[in-house]
Design goal:
Order of helices and strands: HHEHEEEHHHHEEHEEH
Number of helices: 9
Structural class: alpha/beta
Mean pLDDT: 95
Radius of gyration: 20 Å
Largest sheet: 4 strands, mixed
Shape: globular
Number of strands: 8
Helix content: 25-40%
CATH topology of the largest domain: Aspartate Aminotransferase, domain 2
Length: 305
């Protein structure tokens, strides 16, 4: 919570948590540099903000934590080419650990085992959960590089950071079964949008049919993690007033139709900005994709009335 960039979730805890420096993340639809090419050349510009923040820390910064692809807060925003590579190099130069939060994007969700693989970046620490056990059992994991492990092993030799349910045998058994099924059924490949005919490629294609809706400002994402951002005015990208709860209206309309989506607010400034996150299972069929997108389109029309 202390390092989160979600103001709505943080506000009530502010008296209790320590503040850390935050930097801007690439958001091509609302680029800070007002580019018109989808941030193709903005990656290094955003990374430069991290460079300045680390220099301002006067050597006190221990790590930089980011989501390679944003989860609920911004809604499946994919960074431009060059951004993660620049961030990794800056962290290396400043001897700062790079921590990747892949709780939502890991274990095949984006068409790779972990999203960082899309940019050939290897973080020092990677945090994952959710898809690790597919929700059949609560389980998360911290994966550390040899550099981090050796630093502990060659110094104190101990890492006293335990929980009652560490290495819970039932949760681990569920995860082993899930990972074996994911591998045997090639579900990571199913989530790869670049594979012709894959569920991810078809899902991306079908979602494009929503672009003509009056309230749809942006369609974005990667693999089987997608988002639809809603706006009150397309030309200016003006968001709906938060009091309207537009994304919640879409979510409620979809639920009535038997379709579950993830409504969120705050993508613009922490409070304004409506979007829904979409994360279908890798076993979704073409018929289910067609049905889901059709029901989502009807839900958007209902919310626009």
């Amino acid at each position: 919570m202390a390092v989160s960039g979600n103001p709505r979730r943080r506000d009530i805890y502010l008296p209790m948590i320590r503040e850390f420096a935050h930097v801007s993340l690439p958001y091509p639809y609302r680029c800070l540099f007002h580019c018109r090419d989808g941030c193709k050349n903005c990656g290094p510009k955003y990374a430069a903000e991290l460079e300045r923040a680390l220099e301002a820390s006067n050597g006190r910064a221990a790590a930089f934590l980011l989501e390679p692809v944003s989860g609920a807060t911004l809604g499946a925003v994919v960074p431009p080419q060059g951004y993660l590579q620049s961030v990794a190099e800056i962290c290396r130069q400043h001897d700062v650990l790079l921590i990747a939060d892949e709780v939502m994007t890991g274990v095949g969700r984006t068409g790779r085992n972990f999203a960082v693989a899309h940019w050939s970046v290897a973080p020092d620490i990677l945090v994952t959960a959710k898809g690790l056990s597919s929700g059949y059992a609560p389980l998360g994991a911290v994966i550390a590089s040899k550099r981090v492990v050796d630093a502990i092993a060659h110094r104190s030799g101990a890492f006293v950071h335990g929980f009652t349910y560490n290495a819970h045998p039932v949760a681990l058994a569920a995860a082993r079964a899930v990972l074996r099924y994911v591998e045997a059924s090639k579900l990571t490949e199913a989530a790869d949008q670049d594979r012709r005919g894959s569920p991810a490629a078809l899902f991306q294609q079908r979602l494009e049919t929503l672009r003509g809706a009056d309230s749809v400002g942006d369609l974005r994402g990667i693999g089987l993690l997608r988002a639809v951002e809603f706006v009150a005015h397309k030309a200016t990208k003006r968001p709906f007033d938060p009091s309207e709860g537009f994304s919640a209206k879409v979510g409620a309309a979809a639920m009535k139709r038997g379709l579950l989506v993830y409504p969120m607010q705050g993508s613009v400034d922490g409070y304004a900005g409506d979007h829904i996150l979409l994360a279908p299972p890798a076993v979704i069929s073409p018929e289910q994709i067609d049905w889901a997108v059709a029901e989502l389109a009807a839900s958007i029309r209902e919310a626009q009335r």
